[in-house]
């Protein structure tokens, strides 16, 4: 069974600073990997996804993520954080079997200092 | 706006009661997924329907059931409600034709059981 670990529950960064959110997954085959963002009281918005090909994927809002098979990681990065990026971020792995359900990590809450 | 709609937005009810949550997928999407987000369990997959048929089951309690209708909308029925069922319930949809397809999430229904 697949699993996802987000080691950091909370992260605080200053506005304009760079950001890296960690994600480690466990899955027997080539994973389908996703990052979602959830603003307070809102639903989940897809930031980016990795299915295959180039291991560095670009997403919306200036985010990117790098798939590293050797480390079973899919870390999310942003070079310069804006106050509006404060939210909860979820990494997820999708299973390519009879049911394509997502398994989510526990989430990382990002706070941005002015 | 993901194109996935969920009603109602909020639901407050008492223990022992039964409620129905409704989801309309994006136009053209055949799969509907239900997820539960709670403080202690995080985001968990409950069940998936594909073109009217149950395709996959996750950590769904026996008191919960779902169905997908011919027009592809789905309903999640929660019965004999307990305090611990208080959570945010998300519906997601995807095309699910051929290879893996990303899921688009609705805004969620917040259920409060008193």
Structural features, described:
Chain A is mostly beta strands. Chain A contains no helices and twelve strands. Chain A is globular. By secondary structure, chain B is mainly beta. Chain B contains no helices and eleven strands. In chain B, β7 and β8 (74-78) form a beta hairpin. The chains are: A mainly beta (114), B mainly beta (114).
A few lines on this structure:
The complex is a heterodimer of chains A (114) and B (114). Chain A is mostly beta strands and 114 residues long.
Which band does the percent of strand residues of chain A land in? over 45%
| Percent of residues in helices of chain B | under 10%
Question: Order of SSEs of chain A, N→C?
Answer: EEEEEEEEEEEE
Total of DSSP H or I helical runs spanning 4+ residues of chain B: 0
Return the average pLDDT of chain B rounded to an integer. Answer: 94
Q: Can you write the helix and strand succession of chain B as a string?
A: EEEEEEEEEEE
Cα-atom radius of gyration of chain A: 14 Å
Radius of gyration of chain B: 13 Å
- Secondary structure tally: strands of chain B: 11
């Amino acid at each position: 069974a697949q699993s996802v670990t987000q080691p950091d529950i909370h992260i605080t960064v200053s506005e304009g600073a760079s950001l890296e959110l960690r994600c480690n997954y466990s899955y027997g085959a080539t994973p389908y990997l996703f990052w979602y963002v959830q603003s307070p009281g809102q639903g989940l918005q897809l930031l980016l996804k990795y299915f295959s090909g180039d291991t560095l994927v670009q997403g919306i809002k200036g985010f990117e993520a790098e798939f590293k098979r050797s480390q079973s990681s899919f870390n999310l990065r942003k070079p310069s954080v804006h106050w509006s990026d404060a939210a909860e971020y979820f990494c997820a792995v999708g299973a390519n079997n009879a049911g394509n359900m997502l398994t989510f990590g526990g989430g990382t809450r990002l706070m941005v200092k002015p | 706006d993901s194109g996935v709609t969920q009603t109602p937005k909020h639901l407050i009810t008492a223990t022992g009661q039964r409620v129905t949550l409704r989801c309309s997928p994006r136009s053209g999407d055949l799969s509907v997924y239900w997820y539960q987000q709670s403080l202690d369990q995080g985001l968990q997959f409950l069940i998936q329907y594909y073109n009217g048929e149950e395709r996959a089951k996750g950590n769904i309690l026996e008191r919960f059931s779902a169905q997908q209708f011919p027009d592809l909308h789905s309903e999640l029925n929660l019965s004999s409600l307990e305090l611990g069922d208080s959570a945010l319930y998300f519906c997601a949809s995807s095309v699910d034709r051929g290879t893996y397809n990303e899921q688009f999430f609705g805004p969620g229904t917040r259920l409060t059981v008193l």
